[in-house]
Amino acid sequence: MTAPTTRTSAALVDYVTGLGDDALVLSHRLAEWITRAPQLEEDIALANISLDLLGQARTLLGYAGELEGGGAGTGRSEDDLAYLRDEREFRNLQIVEIGNGDFAVTIARQLIFSAYQFELYSALLGSADETLAGLAAKAVKEVAYHRDHATQWTLRLGDGTELSHRRMQAALASTWPYIEEIFDPADVADALAALPGIAVDPATLRPAWAAYVRPVLAQATLTEPRPNRRTRGGRRGLHTERLGHLLATMQSLHRAHPGASW
Amino acid sequence: MSGQRGWPLWEVFVRARRGLSHQHVGSLHAPDAAMALRNARDVYTRRGEGVSIWVVPASAIAASSPDEKDAFFDPALDKAYRHPTFYDVPEGVSHL
Description:
The complex is a heterodimer. By secondary structure, chain A is mostly helical. Chain A has ten helices and no strands. Chain A has helices spanning 6-31, 40-69, 78-83, 103-124, 130-158, 162-175, 179-183, 189-194, 206-219, 241-256. The longest helix of chain A is centred in the first third of the chain and has 30 residues, at 40-69. Chain A is globular. By secondary structure, chain B is of the alpha+beta class. Chain B has a single domain (4-82), classed as Ubiquitin-like (UB roll) (Roll). The radius of gyration of chain B is 20 Å and the shape is flat. The chains are: A mainly alpha, B alpha+beta. At the A-B interface, helix 2 and helix 5 of A face helix 1 of B.
């Protein structure tokens, strides 16, 4: 096996960091529901999903640090990457930054994102990168449950009362503009070019994603929005203002007490 | 979200592994059976406790009343002959 070229390695760091940041930021968003969810049971469900995502983030960011340093234990640690990077260094898609809003917004965000993540990890099972393929094998089962959880709630809110239907429909309207960015290969073009057989072109995931989400909306008596705006640039470090607030909360302890541990 | 009054109570039974029977582990609130199963998965099988879950509406369980405890259970207390303690176990029988 030949040593990866610098270009390949840098592209892989960027690609893995992007996937890790998606998981990390969404994990934090879901953790914000703890003690605030509508029911104790739902509180635990959201915390479970959050922890699954945190586990994925740890694997991915730990791997990114390793790649960056050129070997295990040499680069930045998962904590360095999570707690000591600034907003512009984060590579997550903007959808995971969306504020929790009401419960319907959280569910809409979760439906869109976990349906995407399910297709992503399914595709990564065949990645030539062993770490990514290994993570995908574990994560695809977790995400299948996340997707089911969001689906169950979408059905109940959409096809529930007049109020729940209205709020779920409004939640779709506010989250749908973030979808184009998820499947846009432009922001990951370098990674795709440098990492054939390793990275997954998100555009190829869209048909399967739509084939899952559309029937759910139809069954929930919801209408798929046609947004007239779209987000872009998360993978290049461009973010909404909300990510800054999220990072301020997430990173404050580590920055005030560097190296603090239990 | 109308609070807990809007959601019925479910009793949760978990089977730890094949061959064992389902054991009652607790209860939870959920809007319907499908959600009750998922909530039970999250609340009671977080640490690999089970391979199968049953949920039963608490309202569907007919329970003996504490007031009837004497009539129900006391008559069995003095019937020691119902316990299989009067038999000699033959040697070499290991699984009895």
